[in-house]
Structure formats: structure tokens, C-alpha cells
């Protein structure tokens, strides 16, 4: 029977720690982008020409804030998936320690 184990215990533990950190950070960034925090305006992808040629610039910027927030939440979901895989790897490594060969 093939084993689903593809990383060691230290790498799996590192994956869990990085996943927890990534989920917390990206979820908070998503919340702050959803709240349209003025501090994060430098991270919103727009140019001056976009603002000049638009008849309603605040709505365009708010739409970009929402798009960046959605991207942060998607990235946080990916970190959740990586954390789940890492947790499975930790459990498989623990089970392998107790197997008699």
C-alpha cells in the first residue's frame, strides 16, 4: 500500500506554524481592506490616469479595495488548505513512529 507521507515531522510542523501565521495575517489584511483603511492605499492597484479618466473615482477605488480584500481571503483559504495538509503529515509521521517494521 502506498504511503501518503511525503514530508518529515519538522517540515510538517513548520508548515503548520507558517499556515497559522499566514491565515491570521491575511485574514486581518482582508478585514482592513474591506474596511477601506486609508493606511493601505499604497497597496491598492490604481494609477493617476485611472482616476482622471473616471467620472466617479471613489467608487473605483472602493471596488479595488474590495477586490484586494477578496484576494487576501482567497490566499488565507489556501493557507488553511496547506495547514490541513501539514496537520495530516504530522499525524502520519506520528503513526509511523509507532509502527513496528
From TrEMBL:
Q: Name one GO molecular function term.
A: RNA endonuclease activity
Query: Which ranges does the record mark as transmembrane?
Result: 12-35, 68-88
One Pfam family, short name please? V-ATPase_su_f
Q: What membrane topology term does the record carry?
A: Multi-pass membrane protein
Give the UniProt subcellular location, in the record's own words.
Membrane
Asked if the keyword Membrane belongs to this entry, the reply reads: yes
Record family assignment:
Belongs to the RNase K family.
Q: Write the protein's name.
A: Ribonuclease kappa-B
Question: What is the native source organism of this protein?
Answer: Chanos chanos
Designated gene of the protein: rnasekb
Amino acid at each position: 500500500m502506498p504511503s501518503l507521507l511525503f514530508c518529515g515531522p519538522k517540515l510538517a510542523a513548520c508548515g503548520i506554524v507558517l499556515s497559522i501565521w499566514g491565515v491570521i495575517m491575511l485574514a486581518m489584511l482582508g478585514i482592513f481592506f474591506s474596511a477601506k483603511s486609508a493606511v493601505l492605499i499604497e497597496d491598492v492597484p490604481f494609477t493617476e490616469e485611472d482616476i482622471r479618466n473616471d467620472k466617479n473615482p471613489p467608487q473605483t477605488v472602493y471596488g479595488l479595495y474590495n477586490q484586494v480584500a477578496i484576494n487576501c481571503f482567497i490566499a488565507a483559504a489556501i493557507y488553511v488548505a496547506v495547514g490541513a495538509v501539514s496537520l495530516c503529515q504530522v499525524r502520519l509521521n506520528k503513526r509511523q513512529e509507532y509502527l513496528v517494521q
